[in-house]
Amino acid sequence: MEVYLSHMMIFRVVEKLGIADRINNRNVAYGVVLLLTIVLTIVFALIAKRVIDIYFRRLKKAER
User: Fold this and answer.
1) Which residues are within 8 A (CB) of 29 and not within 5 positions of it... i.e. 6 or more apart?
2) Dihedral (C-alpha) 19, 23, 28, 32: value to the nearest 10 degrees?
3) I need a surface site. Which of 7, 35, 50, 62 has the fewest CB within 10 A?
């Protein structure tokens, strides 16, 4: 469920930016939106993982 939600959140951001509306060819627009959604979801996941890792490292230091 979380994977779907992260994809949907990123898709909504790309949609709000109006990138697909600026491209005349609908097939190309679909491809661009698809590619941006996948790439930005991966970037989001990597950033979220790094933030979580930092949080848990600080939590372990605080327990000592």
Assistant:
1) 19, 20, 21, 23
2) -20
3) 62
Q: How far apart are the first and last CA of the chain?
A: 35
The two three-digit tokens of residue 33, written as one number: 């939106």
In one-letter notation, the amino acid at residue 11 is F
* Tokens 């469920």 belong to residue: 1
| The model's pTM | 0.78
Joined together, the tokens standing for residue 23 give 């491209």
pLDDT tens, residue order, the chain (64 aa):
666 788 899 999 999 999 989 999 999 999 999 999 999 999 998 999 999 999 999 999 888 7
Backbone angles phi, psi at 18, to 5 degrees: 70, 25
